[in-house]
Amino acid sequence: MFQPRPGRVFWESSAGGDVRRIILTEKPIDAMSYHQLRGAEGPVQYISTEGPLQPAQLAKLKQVIADHAGRQRDRLVVVAAFGNSRDGAGLAREVQAIVPAGVHLERAAPEIRGTWNDRLQAKERDYIRSQGVRQMGRGLERER
Question: 142 with 55: CB under 8 angstroms?
Answer without folding.
Answer: no
